[in-house]
Amino acid sequence: MAGRLKAGSVTTALAASLVLGAAQAAAQDNDAAPEKLVCTFSTGTSVSYEAGGFQSKAASPLAFTVTKIDLDGQSAELVTSQGNPPVTLRIIRAVNANHFLEVVNEGFLNLTTIYDKDPKTGLHPAVHSRHLGLVGQPVFGQYTGTCSE
What we know:
Layout: H1 7-31, E1 37-50, E2 53-58, E3 62-70, E4 75-79, E5 87-94, E6 97-103, E7 109-115, E8 124-134, E9 137-148
């Protein structure tokens, strides 16, 4: 009896092996991220705090490129079409997504989450959030869009 496995033990070991294999495959896919992603956000909402309450309105479309993506080094650069110098981004890795964090000079934050490629569209779903203030008033924006390689 000492050398025999019980059926429950085999099932548990097999399930654990499958979960571990799936996690490793997802990590390998995430490691194969492109070095550049062109992102377009066609819809969004801008919210500002005015007269004692939050006021929302539709935001203008937004586009930028994330370049020099280095997942191991957790860094990238953001380039806009306005010709401004590239901005350094910090990468926080997640399961099936990467978060790109920008700390603006004034201490405000911009966060872009780019998800793994959708096999149907070939695009990466993405969300972009801006947290800032203008003349002492809170302002934030939330955008949805996609990124292409």
